[in-house]
Design goal:
Chain A is α+β, with helices and mostly antiparallel strands. Chain A has 5 helices and 4 strands, in the order H-H-E-H-E-E-H-E-H. In chain A, a hairpin with a 2-residue loop joins strand 2 and strand 3. Chain B is α/β, with parallel strands linked by helices. Helices cover 44% and strands 18% of the residues of chain B. The chains are: A alpha+beta, B alpha/beta.
């Protein structure tokens, strides 16, 4: 962290010297970005985790639950990789594994969409990144 | 499906029903480069550095909460012990540093900032003493600053002069924050064998051997362990140990995942996961309830210490297997005010100060969030601290005292802070003086345990 921050500072100083009187905040940022890129360092935080999430939903079984959820998912470009369901008397539990690679929405926005559906149908829907299950249940 | 139906539901049950959450993600920031002869320069440097590193701490932690569906109760910052940064300063300057820390905490939106600390196990520098004497004022004029002082270690023994001074400062802090149930004392810990990477407040600080900046995480899952113990029902001690270990293993894994991801988001190194089971005042999120589920009728009865020892040991064993970065306190916390079961036991008269002291010899820290009558003499508080530190140096473990001599209050009343700090009934303290002993002053020499080389 410290090394990389120092390096960025060094590059910024170089950029200011090179730009001379033309130095503006925007230009310096651009130049530092280019220099970092040539060094093979990304100035943005990389998100190394995968894009698979687990959707869990449960509540009182009623017609249209599965279709409401899946049609919203397909509308957002989500790919359902696996689906599993159990019904006990009037209660249902359904778990889906979803790939968000082609999704038009971020996980956060998708969660909000699902919250709206959950509130409308009076059911529970959880959308969590796969890693939490991998860390807890797989060594 | 790569995961079993039951596995997924178990995780959901933990977070939604059993109160499993991450107690804290604490960003440790070194302030060693913030020194100067001019106090205004020091406070500016401190403010700038904290707000620079922690500017997106809250936002990043919240995004990880959403991503994994596990809530993070507190977002905190710990800093280098301030006595080291301001060693040349007097009381007034130290208070200005506390105010700068508070201002930085408010700007970045964190819950607490800890590290208004001094390490005086062997003796005081002039800065150490000034910082300690400034604590009552610092804690009464700030909202988010937490303070801790290490007065003993296995290697150095116990600095009894520091114990005596701290007992006076605790009394003074209680007086200065009297209108809010002496809340200043809830943010002040006296340590023996303090750890340098503890993410939990009030005792967190960023140790001098720590890197520039680091992210530590503390978990909180008594509710999950409680349900596991309840679902076992009968079963012998080995079976009990097994079920606790399995549960703690899982929550530690989740804690490590969250810590690593928050660190990545902040683009800083991940430090440690503190596997301590930290209770909250929420019903069912209680260490006391676990001990009761194990089989003692109420906390404080015979058998309590043995049950707690088993719990504490299982937490450590499972945590060690689950994470390669275990640190901090890593055991079971037994704060009174933050645990409904403990509060009830005190109210019923089943849990006394003396039994709590015995329990602290096998748990992760010590006498935590204990309220005592406001007229308890400073020497008696010093005696309680010295007893606790003695357990620490002889057993080579961290012990601590966070005691609230509630100003103007007596047994039968309580202090109520709400939130995570909870409610503490005032506990009776034996009216037997130890003034003659403590006022000898000096230092209790290091025990034979210190000679390990």
């Amino acid at each position: 962290m410290k090394t990389s921050e120092d390096r960025i500072r060094e590059l910024a100083l170089q950029a200011i010297n090179e730009l001379g009187e033309n130095a503006t905040e925007e230009k310096v940022r651009q130049l530092v970005g280019q220099k970092l890129a040539t060094e093979g360092v990304s100035s943005k935080t990389s998100d190394r985790t995968g894009t698979r999430v687990i959707l869990t939903t449960f509540g009182i079984n009623q017609p249209g639950v599965v279709s409401t959820i899946t049609s919203k998912l397909s509308e957002c470009g989500c790919d359902i990789l696996d689906i599993s369901q159990k019904i006990m008397q009037e209660f249902y539990t359904m778990i889906m594994m979803i790939d968000l690679t082609g999704s038009t929405k971020e996980l956060k926005d998708l969660q909000e969409e699902m919250n709206t559906i959950a509130a409308g149908l009076n059911i529970k829907i959880f959308l969590q990144h796969e890693d939490v299950f991998r860390y807890m249940h797989r060594i | 499906m790569p995961y079993e139906f039951d596995e997924i539901l178990e995780t959901i049950k933990m977070t939604e029903i059993e109160h499993f959450d991450i107690r804290t993600v604490t960003m440790g920031i070194s302030l060693r480069d913030c020194t100067d002869r001019n106090i205004s320069v020091v406070t500016q440097k401190i403010y700038d550095k904290i707000t620079r590193y922690a500017s997106r701490h809250i936002e990043n932690a919240q995004s990880i909460e959403r991503q994994f569906g596990i809530s993070i109760a507190n977002k905190r910052v710990s800093v280098t012990p301030i006595a080291i940064i301001g060693d040349s300063f007097g009381i007034e300057e130290f208070v200005r540093i506390a105010e700068a820390l508070d201002k930085a905490a408010l700007t970045v939106g964190i819950d607490y900032i800890a590290g208004y600390s001094a390490l005086v196990q062997k003796g005081f520098t002039s800065g150490d003493e000034s910082l300690i004497r400034s604590i009552p004022l610092a804690l009464s004029t700030t909202a988010k600053v937490c303070s801790s002082v290490n007065i003993g270690s296995t290697k150095a023994g116990i600095n009894i002069d520091a114990v005596n001074l701290m007992s006076q400062m605790i009394k003074e802090t209680a007086r200065l924050t009297a209108e809010r149930d002496s809340i200043g004392c809830a943010k002040l810990v006296v340590f023996c064998n303090a750890v340098e990477d503890n993410p939990f407040v009030a005792g967190a600080f960023h140790g001098i051997t720590e890197p520039e900046v680091v992210l530590n995480v503390g978990i909180s899952g008594p509710g999950v362990v409680l349900d596991a113990v309840k679902s076992l029902g009968g079963g012998n001690f080995q079976e009990l140990a097994e079920v606790i270990k399995k549960t703690v293993f899982k929550i530690t894994r989740a804690g490590e995942l969250i810590g690593r991801r928050v660190a990545e988001k902040n683009n800083i190194p991940f430090g440690i996961v503190d596997i301590s089971l930290a209770p909250t005042p929420a019903e069912g999120d209680s260490i006391a309830d676990i001990l009761i589920a194990m089989g003692v009728e109420d906390v404080g009865g015979p058998g309590t210490t043995a049950a707690l020892a088993l719990l504490n040991d299982c937490v450590k064993k499972a945590g060690l297997m689950a994470s390669s970065s275990v640190g901090g306190m890593s055991g079971a916390f037994i704060p009174v005010s933050e645990d409904q079961g403990m509060i009830r036991a005190v109210e019923r008269g089943n849990l006394t100060l003396e039994k709590l002291e015995a329990m602290t010899s096998v748990c992760s820290v010590g006498l935590d969030m204990i309220a005592v009558p406001g007229d308890t003499p400073a020497e008696t508080i010093a005696g309680i601290i010295a007893d606790e530190a003695a357990i620490g140096i002889i057993n080579d473990k961290t012990t601590a005292v966070r005691i609230i001599p509630a100003y103007g209050k007596k047994v039968g009343e309580s202090v109520n802070y709400g939130g995570l700090l909870g409610l503490a009934p005032i506990m009776p303290v034996k009216n037997i003086s130890c003034a003659k002993l403590l006022l000898r002053g000096g230092r209790i020499p290091a025990p034979t345990r210190s000679l390990t080389n």
